[in-house]
Write a structure and sequence with these properties.
The protein has 10 helices and 14 strands. It is of the alpha/beta class.
Length: 334
C-alpha cells in the first residue's frame, strides 16, 4: 500500500492466473465513510489483499462506499461480496443497459456467445476448425464461469458529486471503453481517476460487441475532450502508472486506432471478396491465429471487440460497407 496524497492510498492487485496487467486499487480514508474506487478480479489473492488493506486502514465495510467506474470483471469482481458485508456501490446504470450487457453475457450466456462469434464469422461452414475449437472453449468457459455482473447499486450520472477525506469529486463521463464508464475529477487538487480510458503506454480496448454501437466515435470525442480540458492534471488510471501528459497519451491512442483502421482497409483492398471479422483478424495477426485453442478464447473476447470497433467506425464514416447473411457480418471497401 502506497500513500499518494493525504488520505489517498494505492494498492496494486495482481491476478496471477491471467496474462494481464495488474490493477490499481484506490482507497480514500474518510473520517466517517471511506471511498474505494472499483474492486478487482474474483480471485482469492486479490480478495486477501483488499481485506488486509481495509483492516490496516480500520475501514469497516458498513462505512465503505465503492465507486464502480465500469462493470468489467477486473473492476467489479467483488462488488457483490462487499455489498453483502455492508458496503454501498455507486455506478452509472448505462453499464447494465443493453449495449453494455451484451458484452457481459458473452461470459454468462453461451447462446449469446455463439451468436456473437457467428457475427464474427465463426461458423461450421465458413471456418470449421475455428468453429470447433472456439465452441469447445465456449462450453468450457460456461462451465467454469464465476463472474457475476449483477449487484445492487445506487445510480449515478455525470455531474453528480462525491465527497470523502477532504476531496470533492465530480463524476465525469468516460465513454468508449464501455458505453457508460465514468471517472472522478477533483478540480481544486487537479486529480483525475480515469479508470481504463487512458492507460500509460497502452491502447485501451473499445468494447464493441455488436453493430452500430458507435463507441469508437465516442471514444475519440472523449479523448479529445480530455486533452483540451485537463492539461496539467494528475491522472490515476486503473492499470499501470500515473501520468500528467494527457495530450501525448490521447494523441498516441488515437493514432494507434487510426493505424489499425488503415490496416483493415488495406486488408479489404487486397481481398477480392467481402471478409468476416475472423478473416480480417487472421490477415492482421497471422502468427497468433495459426492455431485455435481454448487458451486464446479470452483473448478473442477482448481483441475482437477492438476490431469490431474499428470496422463499425469505418462503416459509420463511409469508408467501408457492411452486409449480413445468416447472422454473419461481411465487410468490404465502399
Amino acid at each position: 500500500m502506497k500513500l499518494l496524497a493525504p488520505n489517498l492510498y494505492k494498492v496494486i492487485l495482481t491476478n496471477k492466473a491471467m496474462r494481464t496487467s495488474s490493477r490499481n486499487l484506490y482507497i480514500i480514508k474518510g473520517n466517517g465513510r471511506s471511498l474505494m474506487i472499483d474492486t478487482s478480479w474474483k480471485v482469492p489473492e486479490c480478495l486477501n489483499e483488499m481485506e488486509h488493506v481495509l483492516k490496516e486502514l480500520s475501514i469497516d465495510y458498513r462505512d465503505l462506499d465503492i465507486f464502480v467506474t465500469h462493470n468489467h470483471a477486473d473492476h467489479s469482481g467483488y462488488i457483490s461480496l462487499f455489498i453483502e458485508r455492508g458496503a454501498r456501490a455507486f455506478m452509472n446504470p448505462v453499464e447494465i443497459s443493453e449495449c453494455s450487457d451484451r458484452y457481459h453475457r458473452l461470459y454468462e450466456d453461451n447462446t449469446m456467445r455463439r451468436s456473437y462469434t457467428r457475427e464474427c464469422g465463426v461458423t461450421k461452414e465458413l471456418a470449421p476448425d475455428a468453429w470447433q475449437e472456439i465452441n469447445t472453449g465456449a462450453d468450457q468457459l460456461a462451465r467454469e464461469n464465476n463472474i457475476s455482473f449483477h449487484f445492487p447499486f445506487t445510480p449515478i450520472a455525470p455531474g453528480d458529486t462525491l465527497s470523502c477525506g477532504g476531496y470533492d469529486f465530480e463524476i465525469v463521463p468516460l465513454y468508449g471503453h464501455t458505453a457508460g464508464q465514468c471517472g472522478l475529477v477533483e478540480r481544486k487538487k487537479k486529480l483525475f481517476f480515469c479508470a481504463d480510458q487512458v492507460i500509460l503506454g497502452l491502447t485501451p480496448i473499445v468494447i464493441t460487441s455488436g453493430k452500430d454501437q458507435h463507441l469508437l466515435a465516442e471514444y475519440f470525442a472523449s479523448l479529445k475532450a480530455l486533452a483540451a480540458d485537463y492539461a496539467g492534471y494528475r491522472f490515476l488510471p486503473g492499470h499501470y502508472g500515473e501520468f500528467t501528459e494527457i495530450r501525448e497519451e490521447t494523441c498516441r491512442i488515437i493514432d494507434e486506432y487510426e493505424t489499425r483502421c488503415t490496416q483493415l482497409r488495406l486488408a479489404l483492398a487486397e481481398s477480392r471478396h467481402p471478409m468476416t471479422l475472423l478473416e480480417l483478424d487472421q490477415a492482421l495477426y497471422v502468427q497468433r491465429m495459426q492455431t485455435y485453442r481454448y487458451s486464446y478464447l479470452f483473448s478473442y473476447l477482448n481483441t475482437w471487440p477492438k476490431l469490431f470497433s474499428c470496422l463499425d467506425w469505418l462503416a459509420e464514416t463511409g469508408s467501408i460497407t457492411r452486409t449480413e447473411k445468416d447472422g454473419v457480418l461481411f465487410w468490404s471497401l465502399r
